[in-house]
Amino acid sequence: MQKMNIPGPKAKKILEQDSKYVSPSYPRAHPLVMSHGKGSEIWDVDGNRFLDFASGIAVIGTGHAHPKVVKAIQDQAEKFLHISSDFYHSTWADLSQKLSEIAPFSEEAGIFLSNSGAECVEAAVKLARYHTGRSQFIAFLGGFHGRTMGALSFTASKSIYRSGFFPSMPGVYHAPYPDTYRPLLASRPGEDYGEVVVRYIEEEILGRLVPPEDVAGILVEPVQGEGGYIVPPPGFFPALRDLCDRHGILLIDDEVQAGMGRTGKMWAIEHFGVEPDIVTSAKGIASGVPLGATIARKSMMTWPEGAHGNTYGGNPLACASALATIDLLQEEFIQNAAEVGEYTKDALEEIQARHKSIGQVRGLGLMIGVDFVKDQASRMPAKTFRNRVEEHCFEHGLVTLGCGKSTVRFAPPLSISETEVDEGLQIFEHAITLTEKE
Ligand SMILES: Cc1ncc(COP(=O)(O)O)c(C=O)c1O
Fold first, then answer.
1. Which is the closest atom of ligand 1 to the Cα of 147?
2. In a domain, 388, yes or no
3. 35 shares its domain with 92
């Protein structure tokens, strides 16, 4: 297998220019300077080809430059690019109707559109406060909800995100996420670990720290993303829904990373048989055009005119792209994510059987994490090992991203084929073998 010489001469020039002017706060994964992409493939400015198993952080669900998405954006661009949320247009109304139709609850929905994941979380938090008249929230350790000041107060995946930015928004209490591979809490015999976590929230957080009648909402990822692609056990969401119902707390389902078909269903929460009250969506919703959506039960959209807004809400390019994206997801790519996801997980489990460095393969659909460990008995995270595997992958033409302490995430376009998965996994296994030899 051929190792590439990256960055090449053209990329080096751009990296130099970038390092002079672009904010140094961005965490860069690899020196990949993109030229163009098609489906699951990317080419850099020096002509190197990569398979993309990262999708621009789980954004490009329909693959790079899908012709139907490009055409929808082009058609809209010829008509108008912007009018602002002070006015109306049909693409915005169409997308809002579509999101209401596909929302993962039986009631009709009200939709607030913004430009990113963090912004749709901000809107959800403000709406929950407004609607309930309560001020406090519960979130989860390992969770990621964005980096704006409100969203950052919920994010608890790495302390670097908070360093230098205190004080955060008061009134956010964090519980352990139900990670059955590395549980933080002790279970009683026979108890589902998800129920253990909900019992902790009820007895320790609501019992000792904040009375339930002051809690507006619980913000939770249906599958934890940045925290390590962690799938909760089956008992978690039903118990959490029940807790919310008993105390009038809103269940806010952050689908920014796990949603829009990635797990093999439109919404990841659909795997767990409960209906949330508010859903946040971004990333995969518009195939790369910035868009965030806060989707709430209509009965909860009680805020009046002027309570929340923005300049770009309902941006026509983003709405056109989202409508084309949702059509493609419904027509073929959600199904593909479910099928190729199963295929990928099986193949990764075969690789795991050959490599003791892999502790766990976990995930739903095409949201799969491979967790590297120092040894399988202790399950100690092997962070440096994981980082080297990623570097080797990149040098051999496979783009991946890490998540959690020691996990490589597999988040390819939902349009990926089994042949492309095979090609990527060959590189992945080669990268593991190289790292094991070091
Ligand atoms: C679950 C979740 N929520 C919110 C966000 C924030 O999204 P953005 O980076 O678009 O602000 C992310 C980003 O990774 C995320 O994974």
1. 11
2. yes
3. no
What is the number of structural domains in the chain?
2
Of all protein residues, the one whose alpha carbon is nearest to atom 7 of ligand 1 is 117
116 lines ligand 1 (CB under 6 A): yes
Q: What is the 8-class DSSP label of residue 181?
A: S
What separation in angstroms does the CA of 122 have from each of 129, 145, 219? 11, 9, 11
Assess whether 234 and 137 both reside in one domain.
Answer: yes
Q: Is the CB of 255 under 6 A from ligand 1?
A: no
What is the atom index within ligand 1 of the atom nearest the CA of 226?
16
The answer to whether position 192 is within a domain reads yes
Based on the fold, state whether residues 233 and 260 are members of the same structural domain.
Answer: yes
In the sheet that holds 172-175, the strands lie side by side as 109-114, 292-297, 278-281, 250-254, 215-220, 136-140, 172-175
Distance in angstroms (rounded) separating the CA atoms of residues 68 and 120:
26
Work out which ligand 1 atom sits closest to the CA atom of 221.
1
- The pTM is what? 0.98
**Mean pLDDT of successive 10-residue stretches along the chain, which has 438 residues:** 94 98 96 98 98 98 98 98 97 98 98 98 98 98 98 97 96 98 96 98 98 99 98 98 98 98 98 98 98 98 97 98 98 98 98 98 98 97 98 98 98 98 98 97
282 lines ligand 1 (CB under 6 A): yes
**What domain range is 360 assigned to?**
9-65+332-437
**Among the residues of 103-256, which ranges form H helices?**
117-132, 149-152, 193-200, 236-247
> Is residue 151 located within the same domain as residue 162?
yes
Q: Ligand 1 mean position to 145 CA, how many Å?
A: 5
The residue contributing the CA closest to ligand 1 atom 8 is 117
- The answer to whether residues 106 and 209 belong to one domain is yes
pLDDT in tens, 201-219: 999 999 999 999 999 999 9
